[in-house]
Design brief:
This protein is mostly helical. Among the domains are: 109 residues, Periplasmic binding protein-like II (D-Maltodextrin-Binding Protein, domain 2, 3-Layer(aba) Sandwich); 94 residues, Orthogonal Bundle (Helix Hairpins), CATH 1.10.287. It has ten helices and nine strands. The protein has a three-stranded parallel beta sheet, with helices on one face. A two-stranded parallel ribbon has the order 1-9. A two-stranded antiparallel ribbon has the order 2-3. The longest helix is centred in the last third of the chain and has 30 residues. It is found in: Cell membrane.
Length: 291
Amino acid sequence: MPSTSGRNVSINLQILKRRLIKEKETIKNTEIKGRREFYLMHPVRKEVRLEELRGKVLRVVVPKVEPPYVNYLNYSVKAEKERGYGPGVVMEILRVIADELDLTYEFLESPEGEWGTFDNGTWTGAFGELVNGRADIIAGATIMQYDRSQASDLTYPFQFEMTGMLIRSPEQYTDNTFLIVTEPFKLEVWGLAAATICVSAIALKCITTALRSQMEIQYSFVQCVWIFFSVFVQQGVPIQPTSWSSRSMLSFWWLASITLLATYTGSLVALFAVDKTVLSFKSNEICRKFT
């Protein structure tokens, strides 16, 4: 039974043909006690010799016509030309297997028109037909479930379905678009940077005032703030202090500003390069309000 469990259906019928051809070669080249035997191993129900299937009629139960997996119950090339579209993914798989093994299918309808469930130890619907031996194959996009895997042999999944939730896009940067350049750092970081500039300006003012007798250049408080702001934005200082204490302080500030600027630049590039999803909620309680 073809099974589904994504968005894109990817079936390569040529690969399926090559696998069947490889199985035929295995049968041809295998000798067991003078007989050529090959088994299709079924983990639940029984073992089936592949040679015994050739030329047989298999009963195929179709729970429902469900495009694009089953479009109609006729996989012949003639029917495809008459309708103008294919019989469906599952029907095309059955057609390839029938061509390789010379099989004929007898299509049956599910009694309830559903896949069926396992209630009180009994299967209903299409799986009931399969388990009770009234059908050999279920043709359709079977969803993989644990109880179904215990009663049948599901094929490898050819589709994966993703479940998501659609929410309204948050109106971010609607009125203050220019503030996007501040996104790399939180508001607390920017506040601490401004406070550090002011505190450093006060410290530089005190140092230069204390070294007035040593012919140190005197700056006003506004000039001190401007010096550290220039260092913060990687700009030069027009008039350099002459004392060792003042120059050491500016040197440490230069090293700190280089590290801070590198962090800011990298975060800003990542902000523009990577699409960041901003949700309208941050907890399950808030999410329940939208439902």
